[in-house]
Amino acid sequence: MFDYYLRLALRRCRQSVPMVLLLVLTMAIGIAACMTATTIFRALSGAPVPGVSPYLYVATMDAREAVDKDNPDYKRPDSLLKLADAKALVDAHRAVQQVAVAQSLTPLSDPDGKKSEQAYGLMAYGPVVQTLGVSLRHGRPWTEAEQAANAPVLVIDAHMAQKLFGTEDAVGRSIMLGQRSFRVIGVSAPWKPRVQIFNLAQNGGSVMGQDENFFVPAQAALDAGVGPFIAGECGKDAPVVSFQSAAVAQCRWMETWVRLDTPAQVGDYGRFLAGYADAQHDAGRFVYPPQAKLYGTQAWMTLNHVVPDDVHLNLMLAGGFLLLCLVNVAGLLAARFLRRQGDVAIRRALGASKRDVFVQHLVETGLLGLIGGVLALPLTWLGLWIVRMQPVSYADAARFSPGVFAILFALSVGVGLLVGILPAWRVCRQPPALQIKIA
Amino acid sequence: MRHIIKPLFRHRMMPLLVVLQVALACAIACNALFLLQQKLVPIVTPDGVGNPDRLVVAWNIAPRGQPWPSSRLNQVVSELRAIPGVTSASVAGSFPMETMAQMNGNVLGEGAHPARASAAVYIGTHLRDTLGLKLVAGRDFSATEEAVAYKNIGLDASGPVIITRALADRLFPGGDALGHVVRIGDQPDAGQRTVIGVVEHLMRNKFGQDDREDIDYSLLFPGIPSNWPVPIFAVRSRSAAEADSVLKAVKATITRELGPDMIQGMDPTYESYGSLRDHMLAQSKAAVWLLSGVSLIVLLVTVVGIMGLTSYWVQQRTRQIGIRRALGARRANILRDVQLENLLVVGAGILLGMVLAYAINLWLMHHYELTRLPWTYLPYGAALMLLLGQFAVLSPALRASRVPPVVATRSV
């Protein structure tokens, strides 16, 4: 029966090509707009580090050690801590895993200084590779003993190993970082969060994540004269430092990230964190009530507006537009079906049940939806291409992914059936006798 | 009238679909146009910069380690001023159209209940000259005022200030702002700045979505912000023809003077003010294109939808129209009836759509940084939709009016 309905639908489509074209195009434009916005939204709003970031939490507190009369209120949670506080939190070992990190931008070069590459990387205190879920291809992460001894060791990613040494397995080689020679003890797979997660307060509106080319123990890097890219918040009386400075002893520049697997652990750690911060406040170090709080990665990104409002607004706009297209197509389909009441009446008189008529019309609209979906494919591609050409910070997120195909297919068939329900129901409702009379 | 309204209730589906379509289109178009208008603000507002093709800007200059001392920056500025063809050179903490470094603050007028405004502060040397701002009252900073040395950035220091006319009107609605005092912030020891000059325009460098009114609220302080990590240099050339060579010389001078102390891995940008402006507005412009495209397609889809539904609706009633013609109705009557019917249905859709538009706006306001949809949008939107509705119904209505009376006698 199904293929008969299908042939019937195809024949009817051929009878009125302009009308069918209009219907299908309207659906295609609606679907394509929605798909374009959804693709970008999906790319930006998913977990920044799949499988890892849902369990990562960042510690925030008002850790200012001097009265700031210009900003007496703690308006937005602050994740920056002094190295000493970050160390204390990591050394407490209260979470499953914990690490304090800060982003750095510095040249890495091979020992003879022939090859030098600017590289972004993380200065870390704690097991950064394990906590952030970075997978190692060669070698090993640094040990607690190496960290305690400020040993000059580092982990680089495969890209950097290729660039500097022409081979991925660079374990055992030396790299100049700042004024010191560091030994490569591990080579990681390229690691990059899908969107920015570190130091959100100061990264100036960048949305897409950054490839981290190296991971280095923070104190060893400071000893070599390499500091964080941005010095963070320094005390009012401290010497003012700006960028790439290792003189950050007076500054809050590290973020503490912890891995917590269960809600109970999250609650426990939250209490531990508040206890630590309150103790510092009671001891007179933190001048303001610390209001310590843990934020999950997702909540932290929402709070800091990492994904621009425009992305959400465009998604809603596209959704509204698709809805409009659906109503429009439903209306046109109703008109199209009701014009053919005569045919339906004859089928009903010959014994077709209401259900048969209903299904027949749904098959037709489903077919139209599918054609719309096929047309929407190049349109979506075009839409994404247009977005990539735009000077927006999230342009890189506008890429076609296999998941998009599945959504597109489901959406177009769903759309086709949805718009068909009302007209099909309307056309099969009238009693056959009346329909024959009308005919 | 009754013969128009009654059938609408008897055959509900067609009119309902039109109402729904118009309501949705109205809600989407109103909000899209509102967003569009906000994106348009920085593009169409005058920025106050005179002869932008002669202005050269060097920015994205960041010192490694510590910020440069003001004396060092001053030295570089005098080097820049010595470049042949340069009439004025500045170093500033923030700059129009450069959104990375911003100084924003709440400023207050005088009196027990002072007027307040959120405004941008530009601190820099000889900025009035370099930017080519047009003084409409008062005077420029004197050489002594320019030589001020701030203890820190300078926001909380007292001294002279030049403000824009828009800000002057806002803070001192009484009229002349010259000689009055602007307070920078709420604190009791906030900086107090005496207005010595008023310029025609100076756009602030924050393009949020809440900047429709305050986009021209700016203040100009003399001097150099101390310990400022990202200084911006600007140079005005004598003529547009010389701008290119001046740009090259500026790049050479800054690279020579400050290059060794700059951060590694990130190069400064040297460009004409025009290209800086184009870059900064590119995103707004792209959004304007997108939103106008969407609005246009929404309206187009709606027109096509109304056309399709009405022509079916007319075709269904061919016989009734024939009867009315036979009973003496003229073509004009039929035409008017169909148009009136469309007016009613579209009108109902618009009413629903306005409520919907407003509800959506309220929801968006609650969740995003959006301002209230001004009610003035609603009548314009309504008029537009009514016109489009009439346009869409024209061809079906004409077809209806051409139904010959003889149809009435057939196929009963």
Structure description:
Chain A: Residues 21-222 form the MacB-like periplasmic core domain. Chain A: It comes from Rhodanobacter lycopersici. Chain A: Residues 316-432 form the ABC3 transporter permease C-terminal domain. Chain A contains 14 helices and twelve strands. Chain A has 439 residues and is an alpha+beta fold. Chain A has two domains: 2-47 and 308-438, no CATH class; 62-291, no CATH class. In chain A, the strands form two sheets. Chain A has a six-stranded mixed barrel. Chain A has a two-stranded antiparallel ribbon with strand order 9-10. In chain A, a hairpin with a 6-residue loop joins strand 2 (97-109) and strand 3 (116-125). In chain A, helix 1 (2-15) packs across helix 12, helix 2 packs across helix 13 and helix 10 runs parallel beside helix 13. Chain A is elongated and about 95 Å long. By secondary structure, chain B is of the alpha+beta class. Chain B has helices at 2-10, 13-44, 70-81, 127-131, 143-146, 165-171, 243-258, 273-316, 318-326, 331-367, 377-401; strands spanning 55-59, 86-92, 104-108, 116-123, 135-138, 159-164, 181-184, 191-199, 218-221, 232-237, 269-272. In chain B, the strands form two sheets. Chain B has a six-stranded mixed beta barrel. In chain B, strands 2-10-1-11 form a four-stranded antiparallel beta sheet.
